[in-house]
Amino acid sequence: MPRVSLNQIAPNFSLADYAGRLVSLSDFRGKKNVLLVFNRTFT
């Protein structure tokens, strides 16, 4: 996936939520805000 620049629309992608359901970024189009959190572990 190419890097997204500031002030550009992010490309659509899908990930599983905590319950295992598939959620797409496009599901939130038109909503106010989307916050993505990618946890990293340091082991």
How do the strands of the widest beta sheet line up side by side?
1-2
Uncertain residue segments: none
Helical content (DSSP H or I, runs of 4+) = under 10%
- The Rg value, from CA coordinates, equals 12 Å
Secondary-structure element order, as H and E?
EE
**Oligomerization:** single chain
Strand content: 5-15%
Count the helices. How many? 0
N- to C-terminal distance: 26 Å
Mean pLDDT: 82
Q: Which structural class do the helices and strands define?
A: mainly beta
The tally of strands reads 2
Largest sheet: 2 strands, antiparallel
Walkthrough of the structure:
By secondary structure, the protein is mostly beta strands. It contains no helices and 2 strands. It has strands at residues 14-16, 22-24. Strands 1-2 form a two-stranded antiparallel ribbon.
Q: Topology of this structure?
A:
Blueprint (H helix, E strand, L loop, with lengths): L13 E3 L5 E3 L19
What are the salient characteristics of this protein?
43 residues, mainly beta, two-stranded antiparallel sheet, extended
Question: Can you describe this structure in just a few lines?
Answer:
By secondary structure, the protein is mostly beta strands.
